[in-house]
Write a structure and sequence with these properties.
Layout: H1 2-6, H2 19-51, H3 67-76, H4 88-104, E1 114-117, E2 120-123, H5 132-153, H6 157-188, H7 193-199, E3 204-208, E4 211-215, H8 219-222, H9 224-237, H10 249-252, H11 262-287, H12 295-298, H13 308-330, H14 336-362, H15 369-389, H16 401-406, H17 426-442
Antiparallel strand pairs: 1-2, 3-4
Helix pairs in contact: 2-11, 2-13, 3-11, 4-5, 4-11, 5-6, 6-9, 6-14, 9-11, 9-14, 11-13
Length: 449
Amino acid sequence: MNTLLAQDPTLADFGRDPWWLVLIKIVFAFVFGLLATLLGVWFERRVVGYMQVRPGPNQVGPFGLLQTLADGLKMAFKEDILPKAADKVVYFFAPVISVVCAVTALSVIPFGPMVSIFGHRTPLQVTDVPVAVLVLLACSSLAVYGIVLGGWASGSTYPLLGGLRSSAQMISYEVAMGLSIVAVFMTAGTMSTSGIVAAQGDATRLTIGGVEIPAPGWYAILLLPSFIIFFIATVGETNRAPFDLPEAESELVAGFMTEYSSLKFALFMLSEYVAMVTMSAVTTTLFLGGWRAPWPITLWGDANTGWWPMLWFFGKVLMLVFVFVWLRGTLPRLRYDQFMRFGWKVLLPINLVWILVLSGLRSIEDWQSRDRLLATAIGAGVLLLATLLWPSRKPAPKPTPQEQADNRPYGSFPLPPLDLQVPPSPRTKRVVAEREPANIATGSDSREV
């Protein structure tokens, strides 16, 4: 364990790199976000195609890998249409804001431990600060400005409605996301992303039936309710299905990006997929141990040293991206009232109760890690069972037409019968009358007309 802890970067390890090494890290983070977007679009289309029993992209390049690149080039060279009523400056900068906020969040994500690059010992992370998680929340919150300003600057009604929906959606689920991270702060004792990963490095020991079983100290296990709520909130934050209300084609044409075309539309699409990859990386850092290897691989002594941790980190991110795609391929889009009710009346109360319970448990003296794991598992199970077994409110039976007529307010107009048949139009009567002699001559029935 001492060998592994020696690889953990601390805040003192940042700010000492030469300028060229910092530039390499920045370029790596940007290229990672760009390549993850290109591969993410291909990955989503292939996985959804497999779920729907169709091939998906398989013509351009090996396994269709170059299809996304071809689509991006096609978007870039298409005609750029600018609406007459649009605010040109804001209309241009809105998609740029979304992309910059999504990429900036990658600067505080730890991709690995301390490594040697051209003879310099440096952490595989662009930078880290004592409040790095607040930087992630700020980038996630600022991303809504690109959507809102894009809808407003288009000078059209439907994009404006889509932007307003997105602002209300992100504000609602930002509260649940922030409260989920509070539990991580309480357990790790730090807001530094590298410190949170280091806090999840100590394995816990769970005794079941007298047998001691090693278990990872991931907060996805120790803080299971926070992990579930946080991931649901990330799906709502990134406007992904089933929470893609700002892009509800059946209601708002194409949402906030209706009036966008060419490269600006491609930037909005890029920001969505970069945000999906970024939030998967944030979830991995906060709840899945970051770059640390899962339990079976930790039996190998060098699993968390050198460049190997980057492989474990990318594997966890890919797993979460698959869950994003899985949700899109299986769940239908929610109604707006269902979406907002779920955020304010379900996620928020459960999160508040869980933080209260966690605060009470942490105040107990001699609080051992195995007891914490066992109590958390029991508490999460009881909470989930209570949520599933809670009696649902049955809708009141619909009154019969006679009851509606008897209970109507005094002085109101009587209700027409529900089986009222619409009388035929005068034109239909005239056509039937004109064809009546011919029907009599041929022996056919006029009701067949």
